[in-house]
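Obj.: predict assembly geometry.
Materials: sequence records (below).
Method: joint structure prediction, all chains together.
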Amino acid sequence: MNAFVVQLRRGPGLWITPAMVLAGAALALSQLQALTVWSESSSAAANSPYVMGAFVAGGGSWLSVQARRRGTLQVDQLSARGPAAAAAVDMGALAVWALVAYGLVAAIVLVPTAFRATWGGPAWLWLAESGVGLVAFVPLGWGLGRLAPSRFTPFAVAVLAFATAVFWDSSPRTYWWWHRLFPALQWIQRPFDEPRALPLVGQILWYLGIGAAVLAIVAVTGRDSARRTRALAAVACLLVAGGAGIAASTESGHVVFAELGVHREMVCAGDEPVVCVHPAYRDTLPQVQERFTPIVQRLAGTPFAVHRAVQQPREDLAYLTPGATGFGLDWATSTYVDIAAEDLVRNALYGTAACDLSSADLSIGLDPYRVVEVWAFGEGQVLDPHAKQALTWLSGLDGPGARTWLTSHAGQIRACTLAYSDFS
Amino acid sequence: MQLVGDQPPSGPSSRGPFERPREDGLIRAEGVEQRYRRRRVLTGLDLSLGAGVTALMGPNGAGKTTLLHLLVGLRQPRAGRVSVLGVDLRGRGALRQVAPAVSFLPQVVPYVPNFTVAESVGYAAWLKGVDRAVVPGRVSAALAAVGLQDRARTKMRTLSGGMLRRAGIAQAVVSSPAVLVLDEPTAGLDPQQRVDLRRTIRELGLSTAVLLSTHAADDVAHVADRVLVLAGGQIGFDGDIADLEARADSAVEADTPLESGYLAVVGSAAAKR
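Observations (raw structure tokens):
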């Protein structure tokens, strides 16, 4: 049995793997409403190092603390394989367990997706970047354990890793360059988005560079041969500088990892209106059509009539063809089909007008223009007495009467200037 | 005693483990100085070690462990040079070069608690670069040499102090080193364990250059071919047991002539300072 196998069997990786899988899978699944879209499932799995990293960093730290406290460090220094050999084996075995745990989390999320997805495939590069990022916690933890070999260090390092991830992730989503150098961030990739390969490749190189740098430092301090030390240091420098440079210098802005709003060939159905969704949401098309039909019927023959309803990335309205009304569909579930219907109504009534849709003015109750929105949606309830009266009045109109009223008040509706006195 | 399980090829790492080394001056120290902050621990120390068992004695704080660390390359002297098997340890990569031929067992036995005894010894063999094909045979032979063949599958964390010490020696000898350095190997052992360990060290000394530091004069009397007394930062005495006993001073209160001789050497060194 060789040393690597012994470390695999006896090192901390075996014991922390179940905890890593539980934590990682819980996080990934909690971020998904449905396991139907490859990009969403892939990125949820890729987010799992956010919590798994703490276990890996703690395990890495435990290894170096044990080596120092149990005296094996001196034996390692007198190794015929060089002072970094034992460290490499220790860290390598833990890295294997980290990848096993990550692979299991990915399988838990991606295997069900494989049976349900209707378009695309796993975001392999993103998954790889995240896996290598998880492994980068091993040398980080190991190095901290070497610097502070206290029995409390592994726990402290695990807490520090998680706290750093929380801090980084909760800081404003500006994604400055240093955000890209931390191996655990959360981001759900929508199917309209395309991962950017270059920053991901840069990150992979940077994470590998962290491991190489730690081994190079061990080789230097352990007075390994000049040739080997130079080679290791050169590889570490190349990976660290090259990887960090690529990851940090590629396009910044509020999103680093995905190209938003890439145009896709949509899947359409129906006649009046035609409803189009992203092929990843193909299975929801009948449900969406059914939900949209009464709305379209209410608005038919008015300036707000919907002839073509097209799913769009929520963050970007730029890809609508003329005459189309957009709607956002975040997840392929009935709750989100309802939200998509609300979105369709608002886009049909206000378009891109800057109406305040966030809340009612509490001093006067619901904004009058929103009564029309509730009426068109068909299922809304209002509590404000004025709004209730206005909604009752509007609902009491027959089809031609409602169309006439909507047409005559179209300008006020679009400009969000409708008043309760108009409902008469 | 000859290890079984491998056909030793040439090179220091593959010597038969208990084949008596013929070389003299396996370890040389010339003008070695070491200090901790302002306190000088070693002052221009010269030393040459060859075959057999050499015992290093000295009072607490004399610098025995420091000297052992310098001799195996774990530390660099502030001045002077140490060479092992003719390799100057000041050079980068020198430690790696001599590592297969030198084993060091610290006072506190280094071990990973979760490893079994066999895994621990096998891991040490890997670290020393022993050919993978011969590792199982070497591990068995090393465990047999220290009487732990029945404990191969026992976890290190469950071993008694004496067994742990023997397991540590098995780790140290599995690579068949030319030089074996032991830091206070009998410390904390009960009388029976001490007797067993002395026998093991004597047997190792037939084929390996063994340097051990100790406070126990009876250990020295039973195992050492040569005695060094470190006092005042120098080697205050270098000779065999009879020579040290000959230094015995009737004015010094001691239980044995060896202890009396040792105390006389230490007292003489202190007086010179």
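Conclusions so far: Chain B touches chain A at residues 13, 72-74, 92-97, 99-100, 102-104, 106, 108-115, 119, 122-124, 126-129, 132, 171, 175 (CB under 8 Å).
To do: check interface contacts against the pulldown list.
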